[in-house]
C-alpha cells in the first residue's frame, strides 16, 4: 500500500515557496525545455475544455521531468469574471506523482504556485530584456497576478516610481493600501504607461488595452493575460514593432491571441535566451508573452514538497 499523499493548502504553499529558491529552478527548467530533448522533458501543450455557459475554461497541464523524477499535473479553472465579481478568476490544484509507482505523493493548492511561478518567470524576462536604465514600473490589473508581479519585481529591481492602473479604481486603491511603499494609482492605461520602462499586463481583458503608440521605445512588456487564441491585451502595432519572446513556441502558437491575431513573429523562447542560442535584445522594445507551462508548476511543486519534507 502506498502512503497517503501530503495535502498542502494555500497558506502552506505560500509560506514554503520563495522567489529566491524558485527563480534558479525556473531558469534551469526553461533552458532545458528549449533544447527539446524528449528524453529529459515531456510537456504537451495544455488541454483546455471550454465551460461556455459560465465563461470559463478548465486547463490540464501535465509534465514529466525524467532526470529530476518529477511527474506532475496542474488542473486550472479560469474564468472571465464580470466587473464587480468577487470570485477569483483563476483557481488551481497541483498533483505530484511517484514516477515509478504512479501513486499521488502530494496534492497542493495551485493558486499560490500559479501566482508566484508566473511572476517569477516574468521577472526572469525583465532581468534579460528590460532597458539598462529602468526607473518606472507600470502594472495593469490589480488581481492575484498583479500582486505577485508587484512583489517580485520590487524585490529584484530598484524602481524610482511604480504605477498601477485597474479598470476599477477602487480596486487599485485597495491594492495600494495593502503596501508599505508608495504606488501611483493612474486613471487611464495611457497615463500609467507613458514613459514606463517596464510594463506588466495582468488583466482579464479580451480586447487590446495597451497600445504601441503609448509605449516608450526600448521598454519591456511582460504580458501575462490574454491566454486564449481570441483574447488580446496588446494591439497589433505593439506586437509587430516589438521583439517578441515567449515561454513556449507551441503554446504561443496555439493559445496567444496577441500573437495569432497580430501575425507577429516570435523571435525566441525565454529558454533559448537562457541557453545562449538567441540574444536578449534589451536595447529594443521587447514583449515577453507568457502563457504558463506545466514544467513551471512541476518544479514549483517539487520545491514545496522538498521544503515541507525538510521540516517534518
Ligand atoms: N501567463 C500565465 O501563466 C498566467 C496567466 N493568467 C492570466 O492572467 C490574467 C490575470 O489573472 P489573475 O490575476 O489571476 O486574475 P484576477 O481576477 O485576480 O485579476 C484580474 C484583473 O484583471 C482586471 N480585468 C478583468 N477584465 C478586464 C478587462 N476586460 N479589461 C481590463 N481589466 C480587466 C480585473 O479588474 C483585475 O484587476 C488572467 O487573464 C489570467 O487568465 C493567470 C495565471 C497564469
Ligand atoms: O499557466 C496557467 O496556470 C494559466 N495560464 C493561462 C490561464 C490561466 C492559468
UniProtKB/TrEMBL annotation:
It is an enzyme of class 1 (oxidoreductase). Gene3D superfamilies: NAD(P)-binding Rossmann-like Domain, ornithine cyclodeaminase, domain 1. GO terms for molecular function: pyrroline-2-carboxylate reductase activity; thiomorpholine-carboxylate dehydrogenase activity; thyroid hormone binding. InterPro entries: NAD(P)-bd_dom_sf, ODC_Mu_crystall, ODC_N. It comes from the Eukaryota. SUPFAM superfamilies: NAD(P)-binding Rossmann-fold domains (SSF51735). It catalyses: L-proline + NADP(+) = 1-pyrroline-2-carboxylate + NADPH + H(+); (S)-cystathionine ketimine + NADPH + 2 H(+) = (3R,5S)-2,3,5,6,7-pentahydro-1,4-thiazepine-3,5-dicarboxylate + NADP(+); Delta(2)-thiazoline-2-carboxylate + NADPH + 2 H(+) = L-thiazolidine-2-carboxylate + NADP(+); L-pipecolate + NADP(+) = Delta(1)-piperideine-2-carboxylate + NADPH + H(+). One of its GO terms (cellular component) is cytoplasm. Its EC number is 1.5.1.1, 1.5.1.25. One of its GO terms (biological process) is thyroid hormone metabolic process. Belongs to the ornithine cyclodeaminase/mu-crystallin family. Homodimer. Binds the thyroid hormone triiodothyronine (T3); T3 binding inhibits enzymatic activity. This is Ketimine reductase mu-crystallin. The gene is crym.
Amino acid at each position: 500500500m502506498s502512503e497517503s499523499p501530503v495535502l498542502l493548502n494555500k497558506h502552506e504553499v505560500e509560506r514554503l515557496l520563495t522567489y529566491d529558491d524558485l527563480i534558479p529552478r525556473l531558469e534551469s527548467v526553461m533552458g532545458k525545455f528549449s533544447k527539446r530533448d524528449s528524453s529529459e522533458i515531456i510537456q504537451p501543450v495544455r488541454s483546455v475544455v471550454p465551460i461556455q455557459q459560465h465563461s470559463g475554461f478548465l486547463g490540464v497541464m501535465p509534465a514529466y521531468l525524467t532526470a529530476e523524477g518529477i511527474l506532475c499535473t496542474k488542473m486550472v479553472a479560469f474564468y472571465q469574471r464580470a466587473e464587480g465579481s468577487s470570485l477569483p478568476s483563476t483557481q488551481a490544484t497541483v498533483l505530484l506523482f511517484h514516477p515509478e509507482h504512479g501513486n499521488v505523493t502530494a496534492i497542493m493548492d495551485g493558486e499560490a504556485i500559479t501566482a508566484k511561478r508566473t511572476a517569477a518567470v516574468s521577472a526572469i524576462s525583465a532581468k534579460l530584456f528590460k532597458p539598462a536604465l529602468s526607473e518606472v514600473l507600470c502594472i495593469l490589473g490589480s488581481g492575484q497576478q498583479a500582486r505577485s508581479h508587484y512583489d517580485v519585481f520590487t524585490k529584484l529591481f530598484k524602481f524610482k516610481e511604480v504605477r498601477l492602473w485597474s479598470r476599477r479604481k477602487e480596486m487599485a486603491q485597495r491594492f495600494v493600501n495593502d503596501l508599505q511603499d508608495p504606488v501611483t494609482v493612474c486613471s487611464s492605461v495611457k497615463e500609467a504607461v507613458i514613459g514606463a520602462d517596464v510594463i506588466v499586463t495582468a488583466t482579464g481583458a479580451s480586447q487590446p488595452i495597451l497600445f504601441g503608440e503609448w509605449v516608450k521605445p526600448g521598454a519591456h512588456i511582460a504580458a501575462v493575460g490574454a491566454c486564449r487564441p481570441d483574447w488580446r491585451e496588446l494591439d497589433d502595432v505593439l506586437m509587430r514593432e516589438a521583439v517578441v519572446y515567449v515561454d513556449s513556441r507551441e503554446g504561443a502558437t496555439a493559445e496567444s491571441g496577441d500573437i495569432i491575431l497580430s501575425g507577429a513573429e516570435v523571435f525566441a523562447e525565454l529558454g533559448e535566451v537562457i541557453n545562449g542560442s538567441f540574444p536578449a535584445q534589451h536595447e529594443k522594445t521587447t514583449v515577453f508573452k507568457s502563457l504558463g507551462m506545466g514544467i513551471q508548476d512541476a518544479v514549483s511543486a517539487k520545491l514545496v514538497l522538498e521544503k515541507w519534507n525538510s521540516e517534518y
